[in-house]
């Protein structure tokens, strides 16, 4: 595995992963294959394109386009697919589920079919703790039943099951990682931590859904990338591995850390109408990945503080997004009525 196609590599986690891998493995070659939806941005990779010229290429394409996927794999003689490409925001999946089914399920099938046809060495699927559904007690282990509750989570579950079906049916060399909430540089400011950090910088309200007592495991994105790297190199074929800190906190606790890091008042917190079907808690057991020698390097609190500082220091990245028409239209649809109530 030295020539990787990283699908969705212009998005948040994918771009961090590409930078991490090219820095760590001087003999690796990576092609980012990305449709460049609203969440995919070449700015996320602008340093990569210059620092790693000769070991990095970018192809704009849809994972649902089997002809372009196969041509890219052949043109660059790639041996591995790491699939980050997905529609990823739960709130958007409640507005229009169709694109989630198309990319997260059908797109995964297209990539699997190409991997099978071309006899690739590995297909790795980036999945999520949301496939287990909400976990009110204990922690999810990889063999638990999947009980997704949102259209996003259901689509990701469809993708996971298709990956495992290709392993069971044809012995395709697959692995899956299921990550908890990632935070860090280049996360589109619709997800809660970058949204709250950038709103707080501008003294705008932080819209906390419902009572804010939902629990999430906020992990630093590079800890997740390191976990994926460990599974790619030491994971067992056909297996699933959870990746997270193995601890969690409430959204209100997270919000208070965001505010404290920026020195902003609690009066910015505004409780608003809850998300439909809002999962109360996710909690992963990460001992299987730990047994491969991986350890998270940041606690949830450290990850939040570090992330908030990045947004405070990198307004060049997020201001153009937030002031754009696309973002403003989304923000009005998602929060207009909520914040007015
Ligand atoms: P993101 O929304 O920031 O990026 C998604 C990327 O996929 C974008 O670059 C987008 O352009 C691309 N894309 C979307 N549809 C495509 C298509 N049809 N063809 C090609 N490219 C397409 O997402 P992210 O937060 O970086 O998440 C990456 C992956 O990790 C996803 O599979 C997601 O389900 C999973 N995941 C995310 C988190 C998290 O907290 N963000 C946690 C666990 C798992
Ligand atoms: O758990 C992994 C998942 O984490 C990934 O698979 C998803 O791609 C990623 O989007 C994320 O999903 P969440 O729904 O957990 O993340 P989000 O940032 O949207 O919300 C985190 C929590 O904050 C959740 O309980 C909802 C709440 N929230 C979110 C927003 C956007 C608010 O209270 N207010 C908000 O405005």
Q: Flag low-confidence runs.
A: none
Element order: H for helix, E for strand: EHEHEHEHHEHEEHEEEHEEHEHHHH
- CATH superfamily (homologous) name of one domain: NAD(P)-binding Rossmann-like Domain
Structural class designation: alpha/beta
CATH topology of one domain: Rossmann fold
Determine and state the CATH class of one domain.
Alpha Beta
What is the gist of this entry?
The chain has 341 residues and is α/β, with parallel strands linked by helices. The chain is 45% helix and 16% strand. Helix 3 packs across helix 5 and helix 7 packs across helix 11.
How would you describe the overall organization of this protein?
This protein has 341 residues and is an alpha/beta fold. The chain has a domain at 3-183 and 220-243: Rossmann fold (3-Layer(aba) Sandwich), CATH 3.40.50. Helices cover 45% and strands 16% of the residues. The protein has 13 helices and 13 strands. The strands form four sheets. A seven-stranded parallel beta sheet has the order 3-2-1-4-5-6-11, sandwiched between helices. Strands 7-10 form a two-stranded parallel sheet. A two-stranded parallel sheet has the order 8-13. Helix 1 links the parallel strand 1 and strand 2 (29-34). The mean pLDDT is 98. The structure holds nicotinamide-adenine-dinucleotide and 2'deoxy-thymidine-5'-diphospho-alpha-D-glucose.
């Amino acid at each position: 595995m030295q020539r990787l196609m990283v699908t969705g590599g212009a998005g948040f986690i994918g771009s961090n992963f590409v930078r991490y891998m090219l820095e760590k493995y001087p003999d690796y070659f990576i092609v980012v294959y990305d449709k460049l939806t609203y969440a995919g941005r070449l700015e996320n990779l602008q340093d990569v394109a210059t620092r790693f010229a000769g070991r990095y290429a970018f192809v704009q394409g849809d994972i649902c386009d089997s002809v372009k996927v196969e041509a890219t794999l052949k043109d660059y003689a790639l041996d591995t697919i790491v699939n980050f490409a997905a529609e990823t925001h739960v709130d958007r999946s409640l507005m229009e589920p169709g694109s989630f089914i198309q990319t997260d399920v059908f797109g995964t099938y297209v990539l699997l079919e190409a991997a099978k046809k071309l006899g690739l060495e590995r297909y790795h699927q980036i999945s999520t703790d949301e496939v287990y559904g909400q976990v009110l007690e204990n922690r999810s282990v990889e063999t638990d039943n999947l009980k997704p509750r949102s259209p996003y989570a259901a689509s990701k579950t469809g993708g996971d099951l298709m990956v495992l079906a290709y392993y069971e049916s044809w012995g395709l060399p697959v692995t899956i990682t299921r990550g908890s909430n990632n935070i860090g540089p280049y996360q589109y400011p619709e997800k809660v931590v970058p949204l709250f950090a950038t709103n707080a910088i501008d003294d705008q309200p932080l819209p906390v859904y419902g009572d804010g007592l939902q629990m999430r495991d906020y992990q630093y994105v590079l800890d997740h990338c390191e976990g994926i790297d460990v599974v790619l190199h030491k994971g067992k074929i056909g297996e699933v591995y959870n990746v997270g800190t193995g601890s969690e906190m409430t959204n209100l606790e997270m919000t208070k850390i965001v505010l404290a890091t920026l020195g902003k008042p609690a009066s910015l917190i505004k409780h608003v109408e809850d998300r439909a079907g809002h999962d109360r808690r996710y909690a992963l057991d990460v001992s299987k990945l730990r047994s491969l020698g991986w350890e998270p390097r940041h606690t949830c609190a450290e990850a939040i503080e570090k992330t908030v500082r990045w947004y405070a220091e990198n307004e060049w990245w997020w201001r153009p997004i937030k002031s754009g028409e696309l973002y403003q239209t989304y923000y009005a649809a998602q929060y207009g009525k909520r914040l007015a109530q």
